[in-house]
Amino acid sequence: MSSVARDRVRELMGEVMTAQGRSLPADDSAELRTIGFRSLDFSELALRVEDELDDELNFDAPGLRRIATIGDVLDFIEQLQSA
Amino acid sequence: MTTRRRTTALIGDDNTVVVAGKSLTWRTLHKLPQLPSPAAVLVDNGADALAALRHHAVHGTELLVATSSRVDEYMREELGESGFSIVLPDGKVTPATLKRVEESGRAWLLTSGSTGRPKRIGHTLESLTTVTADQPPRTWLLPYSPGTYAWWQVVMISLTQPDQGLVVIEPHELEDWPLIAARHGVTAASGTPTFWRQAIYRDAEALAAVPLEQITLGGEPVDQAILDQLHDLFPKARISWIYASSEVGASIVVHDGKAGFPREWLQRAPDPDRPMLSVEGDELVIRSPHHGAGLVGAVHTGDRIEYDGDRVLITGRLDTDEINVGGSKVSAGVVRGVLMAHPGVAWARVFARKAPLVGRMVAAEVVTNDSLGPIADVDLVQWCSSRLPDYGVPRRIKFLDEIPQKETLKSDV
């Protein structure tokens, strides 16, 4: 399966935020709670990545983990693509 | 085979019928060779379908008429095993594999198949004639696919009422129907909301040139936006929407220009000549005097309703209308109504898309018009965000180049 690069995932995350009338901070350590990135936004990001991949992400494979920052989201999407 | 003549059905025999540009009447339509009975007549043009219907009206034979493209090999086999001889567009007849006595006067319809494989519903010319009051002289457009309930509704007006002409639109003429309608002085037209949206989207000016006095919508959920657009184009026309199906017949007819029907209709006193409407859970339930054979009593329509003040809106099919987003439920029909109310949107389809964390998300396909210039998904998301709960906002919006339309004039919304 091809993959979407981390930088591109960050761009897509920015598009999700823009569509909601917000912007994505440059700092990967920014807290999702602070910037208002919610579960619906995360789900939308996953769909955007799937559309770029033209394939579904496998959410069953990775174990549960805490996703609290922008960096966590990017790590998690990276991990999903390699699963 | 019976030769019982159904004189009451032929009051309109001298009405004008325009097919393939030729102006004829029901009486001067070409005659089909004597049809077997029961027969499934598969046609590839509107003239043959009308000829088959007139043959049925004169001879009382058992008839199913449909376009050949709607009846696949498997269904033809099923029909043969149910006693129907199959008459193909070229006139070839495949005899029935089961021999049985005909049901004299029985007309069979195939459902549109929007809820799965098309089903066969039994009617008679009487049960298909729901407009019985005298009508002002009109020329009706006939854009529907032969054999569907909507097709029967329009042709029965022309066959049973004086001064009700017909202008038949073949599938290859659908894109240019306003030009044909204007040429032949069409004053009444019935179509799905998709059909009307496409006409406005393609060429609103050509549409406005049709001298329409009666506009009817049905077959799909009817939203306020399309009613308003048609009213703007035809301020003097009567605009009606009809809830009708092969199963329950024409059961709701609304002329006030508003989406939905008055809530007080759910409390109407029982009347054997009028459909009784009720709601169970979110589902519309109808007892109809126009029902198909064997469907007497309450019919659970499978259509979902939603209350909006003093109106009852029909939002879509129960099994596909409700989208569960992480435990919060939203009606696809309601979301679609919000999208369609955007002045730059010509058409929209709303559906559930599988998504992580929340299970399903609301997604949409949209066709824009150019009245506001280019529109981006961000514009539509913001439009919806101020009108819907956050879980109801479409998160993935795909822009299509044109409004998709099936043979039934519907678009799977």
CATH class of the largest domain in chain B: Alpha Beta
- How many domain units of chain B? 3
Q: How much helix is in the residues of chain A?
A: 55-70%
The CATH homologous superfamily of chain A is termed ACP-like
* Cα gyration radius of chain A (Å): 12 Å
Q: Uncertain regions of chain A: pLDDT < 50 for 5+ in a row?
A: none
Under CATH, the topology of the largest domain in chain B can be stated as Rossmann fold
Structural class of chain A: mainly alpha
Could you state the order of secondary-structure elements of chain A as H and E? HHHH
Determine the CATH superfamily of the largest domain in chain B.
Answer: ANL, N-terminal domain
Q: Could you say which overall geometry of chain B the principal axes of the C-alpha atoms support?
A: globular
Q: Describe the biggest sheet of chain A?
A: none
Largest two-chain interface: A-B, 16 and 19 residues
Oligomer: heterodimer
Instruction: Please outline the major beta sheet of chain B.
Output: 8 strands, mixed
Short description:
The complex is a heterodimer of chains A (83) and B (413). With 83 residues, chain A is mainly alpha-helical.
What features would you describe in this structure?
The complex is a heterodimer of chains A (83) and B (413). Chain A has helices spanning 6-19, 32-35, 39-53, 70-82. Chain A is globular. In chain A, 55% of the residues lie in helices and 0% in strands. Chain A is mainly alpha-helical. Chain A has a single domain, classed as Non-ribosomal Peptide Synthetase Peptidyl Carrier Protein, Chain A, CATH 1.10.1200.10. Chain A has 4 helices and no strands. Chain B is built from 10 helices and 24 strands. In chain B, helix 6 (193-208) packs parallel to helix 7. The longest helix of chain B has 16 residues, at 193-208. The model of chain B is unreliable at 1-7 (pLDDT under 50). The A-B interface holds A 18-21, 39-40, 42-44, 46-48, 51, 56-57, 59 and B 325-326, 353-358, 361, 363, 377-378, 381-382, 385, 390-391, 395-396.
